[in-house]
């Protein structure tokens, strides 16, 4: 297995950056970027093993989004079972006073806490 991939954006070689220039004399070209696998370690899975940067990833997705959606189609929503706990907590807001100042007005808020169902 090779330690390198070529950027998978089919238009990577059309983007004009100095880093893509290869060749000598009058035979210069813009070349697809070569990517060292695992260059960011295990951070953000391995998507950056296949695309040299976010621009190339987005160009790829815009070009092949329909095919990707057809290949990995979603025909119905998925659901994750959860427990919801409602909790009251102390909150406050500021109210303007007649003398141009402000005063802190406490009130009770509620929030929902989502927990994984075990
Ligand atoms: Zn690229």
Task: Report on the architecture of this protein.
The structure is a single chain. The chain has 118 residues and is an alpha+beta fold. The chain has 1 helix and 6 strands; from the N terminus they run E-E-E-E-H-E-E. It has one helix at residues 54-71, and strands at residues 4-6, 21-22, 29-30, 34-36, 82-96, 102-116. It has a two-stranded antiparallel ribbon with strand order 1-4. Strands 2-3 form a two-stranded antiparallel sheet. A hairpin with a 5-residue loop joins strand 5 (82-96) and strand 6 (102-116). The mean pLDDT is 93. It binds zinc ion. Zinc ion (ZN) is lined by residues 7, 9, 12, 33, 51-52, 56. The site of zinc ion (ZN) has 7 residues, from loops.
Outline of this structure?
The chain has 118 residues and is an alpha+beta fold. The protein contains 1 helix and 6 strands. The chain binds zinc ion.
Please count the helical segments: 1
Rounded to the nearest angstrom, the radius of gyration is 26 Å
Round the mean pLDDT to the nearest integer and report it. 93
Strand tally, please? 6
Report the order of strands and helices. EEEEHEE
